[in-house]
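Bug report

Summary: structure tokens for M23 family metallopeptidase differ between web form and batch submission.
Environment: batch mode, default settings.
Steps: 1) Submit the sequence below via batch. 2) Compare with the web form result.

Sequence submitted:
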Amino acid sequence: MKKFLLIIISIAILSAYKVETKKWSKSDTFYGFLKKYSIPISLYYDLPGNIKRKVKRIRIGETIFLLTENNRLKQALIPLDDKNQLQIINKNNKYLTKIVPIIYETQKKYIEVTINNNLNYDLYKATNLRSLTNKIINIFSDKLNFRYIPKNTKIKILYEEKSRYGSVKQIKVLYASIFNKFYQYNAFLNPYDGRYYDERARSLKGMFLPAPLHYKRISSKFGMRLHPLLHKWRMHDGIDYVNRIGTPIKSVADGKIIYKGWIRGYGRVVKIKHRDGYITLYGHLRGWPKGIYVGKWVKQGQIIGYLGNSGLSTGPHLHFGVMRYGKWINPLKIRKSAKITLWGKQRKNFFAYISTLKKDYNIALK
Ligand SMILES: [Zn+2]
């Protein structure tokens, strides 16, 4: 009996399985990884083309999972992007590969923080998350300036954390409230459209972004002008934003693409139809990102093209036009007036959702 036990123990020691996680470093390469574990290079050549490209670009700092036995690789999981990972399995010294989804752990957290120093410092101290501050600033950016926050302001945040092997990969703010003796602002993420609304179903942000790009300057405003190329007085029915060729152009509001192609004068164009009778036009583009086509629904802030110089244009710029009920209007005058309030079924769904949230997390609104 004693001898038998000894044999079992020594087998366990001999077959030393080891589980570890490692961070992909700057000096790591997929080729080096194969070499380290004596895996034949044919494993790489047998991968499909798109996966080959991905293993060459494994992000620095990504965590890879390793199961080894006496320093021989038995299994590895290498993340390729936010969704998928490459699994390598050693089966009797034959190496098999598989693409499997990354499993994240999701956790909801509810915090209340008093802002004593500044938002960034106090939030980081409470959560250890760097990206949370930017999300909060972005949610309330139309409501308040975080540089001037009265003393004793409190902020409550309910957020969802997605992590892998203990490191946080993604956070989503589900609810946030900022309050002091002067005001209270509440923001609920509406799961049906991905926007933030207050407790009365009014959007925190305008329906439109202030501009469809980061720009250096406006070279021409809306109105009558002497056309720089035609040398005739013409109505300029939009705004010209100047920046470098290739600057990403974003849709200023949620909507549906109704035109993509060439329009004489405007060059390469995207036209998007939005709610309440609005259409926006983006002209002189250099090109479009993948997945931009007529009929596609886009979100506010989504990239729909790149700044160019196509069509009748004196230099790289974006021509941005806004039409309402068939008439061009001044894009600089639309922003403030256009807020979204949920009505009908959308409003009902939103209220049903936030009432469960309020119950579950004991959220009290003043
Ligand atoms: Zn123009």
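Above is the batch result. After comparison, the two runs are identical; trailing whitespace caused the diff. Helices lie at 2-14, 30-36, 42-45, 49-55, 119-127, 131-140, 344-361. The pocket of zinc ion is lined by residues 220, 236, 238, 240, 319 (CB under 6 Å).
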